[in-house]
Amino acid sequence: MQTIYLSHPYDHEKIYDQPVVLALGFFDGVHLGHQEVIRKGRQLADQYQVSLAVLTFNHTPRLVYQQIHPNHYHYLSDNTRKKELMKANRVDILYIAEFTSAMGAQSPQEFVDRYMVNLNAIHVVAGFDYTYGLREIANMQTLIDHSQGRFKISEIPKKTIDDQKISSSEIQYQISNGNIDLANQELGYIYETRGIIINGLKRGRKLGFPTANVAINPGQLTPGIGVYVVEICVQGQWHIGMASIGYNITFDDVKELSVEVYILDFDRMIYGERVRVKWHHYLRGEIKFDGIESLIDQLEEDQVHTRAYFK
Description:
This protein is an alpha/beta fold. It has two domains: 2-160, Rossmann fold; 190-310, Riboflavin kinase-like (Elongation Factor Tu (Ef-tu), domain 3), CATH 2.40.30.30. The protein is built from ten helices and 14 strands. The chain has helices spanning 32-48, 62-65, 79-88, 101-104, 108-117, 143-147, 168-176, 180-187, 203-207, 292-310, and strands at 2-7, 20-24, 51-57, 93-98, 121-127, 152-156, 160-161, 164-165, 191-198, 211-216, 226-234, 237-246, 258-263, 274-284. The strands form three sheets. The chain has a six-stranded parallel beta sheet with strand order 1-4-3-2-5-6, with helices on both faces.
């Protein structure tokens, strides 16, 4: 897959100079609804015997239009993860456009001319709720007029699970509230975050459950407080584990949220290692125990459930 970064107004020399089927969207998470858009694009590209291109943005347009600090907005997939997911969905060309006020100031017709026609689109595919400006004047219905017959259009209907529309915001809500099982169902794959192993209080080691403290990369959404069944990739190898997100409320000396992973059948020093964590299943909420023994008993029970999950 070729990744092309665009900054408005872009250099035309960067544009892939052959006809393409173009899929449009922000694609945060590349969930099942997004995958339908890409799958339709792939099908059409194969029919036309052309490449499949996707146009997305480097960050959410909300950072331009709303008073949101970048450090306070969390994505289901940062650009690195998004590129991986696009490649896995057989995208040939990924355009990542820098969304700025200058790009947002374009009229709907200008956006269509520059970011659809001039990207050599012969067929455009997008979800039913795609907009390229104000919703009232730049939606999938108005795109028919703005296209001026220069490309064909396919609109993908909404995708639902149990009558609930699948959307990035819906999945973010579920992950933030610990409903990782439902979120994974809506994503169509196991949610993943990345980070680096940092020094902690080493309290787990004293309990017989040494944990790896993971500082999740900025901008990635952290699941809600609780204990989870996970996989963690260390030095290129995947291991099963159980992760705790919370404040260690049994002890009163922890004031910041921590992400700790107990890696089963593992005993190596890995401080500073960059890791990936797949969040498979929610086990339980955070519990304030009345003593160390009851905490250890619960951890042993969590370990049994974790092993059983992967069997």
